[in-house]
Amino acid sequence: MDSAQLSHFLRVRREALTPGEVGVTSSTRRRTPGLRREEVAARAGISTDYYTRLEQARAPKPTSSVLRGLTRALRLTLDERDHLFRLAGHTAPDRLSTDDHVSPVLLGLLDRLHDMPAQVMTDLGEVLAQNALATAVFGDHTRLDGPDRSLVYRWFTSEDARAAYPLEDRAQESRLLAADLRAALVRRGDARARALVDQLLRDSTEFAELWSAHDVAVLRSRRKRILHPETGVLELDCQALLEENRSQILALFVPVPGTDTADRLALLGVLGAGQDH
Q: Phi and psi (nearest 5°) for 13?
């Protein structure tokens, strides 16, 4: 780990970002260029103290999860991300086998979507980036590791993952997720997808039964209901915007017309803003 070079790189990249580029609004005048340290830390999902120590070359070696968060927070390109990992004493992620990098353009789009939840995901159900409303509705899923990174795995192995769905909607959700994963496995044909399926077959009898049916379907659009503890039922039209190779998805969750979901999302936005201060 090259602490001095890492410190300098983080500071330079932070100062190069304007608040407007990442959707940060401020009523106070800034005495220095770029983002504040606490703003970068919050967006990376780490403490301000730890980020400050990184910039001061006083912190221990960051984990790959922390580096992924910093990549998103600082809007790094692939080359910059690889540089960050190497400075921190890690091997740069394999570009041929990882889907973790989200382009700065796509992250900028997320920051500008204020009235609907939106998130970037892989086709294995791994959430890579979320806007504030998506975090408020679904929770922060960007810092999970191992099989739990996949919402498909969590759905079939954790009752907590199903708690936000009405009981009568859960069987259909299970069928859709299994059918979509079947399509992803064959389309990708890689060890990462195979490992996820094998783990699910070992850990979930429900998944094994659905898998044996060999249903195939790519999730592009559907309607879902979410039972949120603070606002009640949210009715959302889910639209998946797919990359050409379909390895990453921009998932938009649009309030269903004729419901009060838009008002409830606005309330969640206010509650979330209050918790940030």
A: -65, -35
Alpha helices (H) in 88-190, listed in sequence order: 104-112, 132-138, 151-157, 159-162, 170-188
Mean pLDDT of the 116-130 span: 90
Would you say the C-alpha torsion 112, 118, 123, 129 has a positive or negative sign?
positive
Sheet containing 232-242: order of strands: 127-130, 118-122, 248-255, 232-242, 221-228
- pLDDT of 194 higher than 50: yes
What amino acid occupies position 145?
A: D
Do residues 138 and 117 lie in contact, with contact meaning Cβ atoms separated by under 8 Å?
yes
**Adjacent-strand bridge partners of 253:** 238
Task: Count Cβ atoms below 10 Å from residue 11 Cβ, excluding itself.
Answer: 15
pLDDT band at 257 (very low <50, low <70, confident <90, very high): very high
pLDDT at 27: 55
Q: How far apart are CA 257 and CA 262, in angstroms?
A: 8
Q: What is the pTM assigned to this prediction?
A: 0.68
Mean predicted confidence (pLDDT) in 169-184: 93
Burial 46-59 (b: 16+ CB within 10 A, else e): beeeebeebbeeeb
Cα distance between residue 42 and residue 47, in whole Å = 7
**Both tokens of residue 15?**
């100062």
* 85 pLDDT higher than 70: yes
Q: How far is CA 236 from CA 43, 141, 256, 263, in A?
A: 25, 19, 5, 12
- The pair of structure tokens assigned to 134 is 């998506």
Tokens of 109: 């789009």
